[in-house]
Amino acid sequence: MPESAGLVIRSPHLQPLELFPVRFTGDGANAAPSLVVSGVPAGATELAIVMDDPDAPLPHGFTHWLLYGVPALDRAVDLDDPSVRVGPNTMGERAYIGPMPPRGHGRHHYFFQVYALSETVDGEPSREEFLARYAASVIEQSRFVAYYERFRHEDPAMTTDA
């Protein structure tokens, strides 16, 4: 899959390679962070977004959030847009699940990946099904990574709503 030449995904709530604010985790309000996409390439028909934790003690990591049908536009992702569909996370739920790694398991990295696709995703496949079925349709991809360490959740620095 081609890496990004101009495609960017970011969040006003999360800084790359920095700690997740607690309100976006399972230890807090479990609120889904806002996402903004820019640099969408010509020819993209839709975007797909995956949030996963490859450090989770599972064979394929842990999928926290899947979004399909995101319009191929430079803008904030509108979760109320009727074209946006939420795919199944690792728990089988069609919802965002914030970081909540096992206590004492150390730092977990959370990858937010955006895929600009040349075709429309059919239905709401799992992350594994999506990657297998649509790899050839990826025009461009980009990602950012944030982290969370659960054993530190009582640290006052982690209780801000930043």
UniProtKB/TrEMBL annotation:
Q: Would you identify the family this protein belongs to, as annotated?
A: Belongs to the UPF0098 family.
What PANTHER family does its record include? PEBP (PHOSPHATIDYLETHANOLAMINE-BINDING PROTEIN) FAMILY PROTEIN, UNCHARACTERIZED PROTEIN YBCL-RELATED
Name the chain's protein: YbhB/YbcL family Raf kinase inhibitor-like protein
Which Gene Ontology molecular function entries are recorded, alphabetically? protein kinase inhibitor activity
The lineage, from the top, is:
Bacteria, Bacillati, Actinomycetota, Actinomycetes, Micrococcales
Q: Which keywords appear in this protein's UniProt record, sorted alphabetically?
A: Protein kinase inhibitor
